[in-house]
Amino acid sequence: MTPRSYGMDLLRWFRFLWALGWLGEIEGLQSSLTHAEEKLAQLDAQISRKQESVDLGIPTFREIVARTTAAATPPGPA
């Protein structure tokens, strides 16, 4: 028996298990839910840290083109 097989949300599932007297099952689900929430918080923190940009010092395309066009002028007649 799973919550999906009964078409129930989690709160209704807890009430159903409480009515059956399956307190151990409720405790296990609450523990799993707590750990899942902690993992989601860790992932959110990891994502927010990764969204910060880091300057690697690599020139942009426009900087490269600007340098080559200035140096690419043909020399005058000798």
Textual characterization of the structure:
This protein is mainly α. The protein is 69% helix and 0% strand. The protein has four helices and no strands.
Q: Gyration radius, to the nearest Å?
A: 30 Å
Largest sheet entry = none
Q: What does the overall shape look like?
A: rod-shaped
Mean pLDDT across the residues is 79
Number of strands: 0
The structure class reads mainly alpha
Proportion of residues in β-strands: under 5%
Q: Runs with pLDDT <50, length 5+?
A: none
In short:
This protein is mainly alpha-helical and 78 residues long.
Tell me the layout of helices and strands:
Blueprint: H1 3-6, H2 10-20, H3 23-50, H4 61-71
Give a quick set of tags describing it:
78 residues, 0% strand, rod-shaped
